[in-house]
Amino acid sequence: MQRAGHNKNGWRRYKEVSVPWADYDAYRLSEYKRIIDLRKLFLTLDKPIQRREFQLSLLSILILLKILFGLSYRGIASATKDLGLYEMLGLKRAPCYKTIQNTMSYLSIELLTAINRSFIPHTTSLGGLDSSGLKTNRRGAWVVIRFRRSNMRRKDFKKVHLFVDLISKKIVNCVVTNGRKSDAKQVSRLLKGCNWLRVDVILGDRGYDSRECFDEISRFGSYPGIRVRKNARTLSRGCPIRRKAVLAQKRDYDQWRDQVKYRMRCVVESVFSGVKRRFGEYLFSIKERYRVVEVWLKSILWNVLIYPR
């Protein structure tokens, strides 16, 4: 076999890469400041005033930092003590990991929804629906080999359904279900708590091609930009707006795609990819209610840090 030679003299870097570390450190520092500033949104947890040594609004900030850095409860407790985070937050001493963990029981879905609503514009031209899976465990390679768990099961995942503003790229609403739930049946839950938002067109893939989805989006006051299946029939059957969509796509799909701006639907996939890369593709919570709270906290972090505008 002939061995390829190395020509070091003829090699050169295709593109010079220089990282402005000063700007990078300043940007990361501004992220931490924005997280600490979120305390004023959690002040309602401190009322009524009780005999608590640690305020729940400050403990909520520690949970957000835990999700941001992918630490365990013991890890964020150690970092709070060793790095002096408790002094920066105005605490007399560092809380233990159990105190931080118990804060999850005080975070309600209504409170997190109201906090997330403050970061989203009330009017947008495009919205998107999609779903993806998050792991419920971090099983190592030895566990897979030792206990012969090579095939992932449905119960090892949780399905997260998102309603995203495609213009500002912010998460409007989220629903957590098991891996067997259909995407089309979660549209009513996603749109139910978003009556304050006005969306002109809501995009969705073929998984949302059903008469119920078209009717729900129409009642919401938006135009359904859903791509129908290849074998879709032109019969109305009580849903004339779906019949119009089928006729328009069969007549000229490119014209319909440009009219509803269907290419923008890929933004939802980008949001899922960004959330998983930044905050991890797994859920650290065990209880079902805390998993929903964790997904909402990740959504708030995404809306605050990734797209602060």
Explain what you see.
This protein folds into 2 domains: 21-107, no CATH class; 111-303, Nucleotidyltransferase, domain 5 (2-Layer Sandwich). The chain contains 13 helices and 5 strands. It has helices at 21-36, 56-69, 73-82, 85-88, 97-102, 109-117, 141-146, 187-192, 211-220, 240-251, 253-260, 266-279, 288-306; strands at 123-135, 157-165, 170-178, 198-204, 223-226. It has a 5-stranded mixed β-sheet with strand order 3-2-1-4-5, sandwiched between helices. Helix 2 crosses helix 3, helix 6 (109-117) runs parallel beside helix 13 (288-306) and helix 10 (240-251) crosses helix 11. The longest helix has 19 residues, at 288-306. The protein starts with 20 loop residues before the first helix and ends with a helix. The mean pLDDT is 88.
In short:
This protein is α/β, with parallel strands linked by helices and 309 residues long.
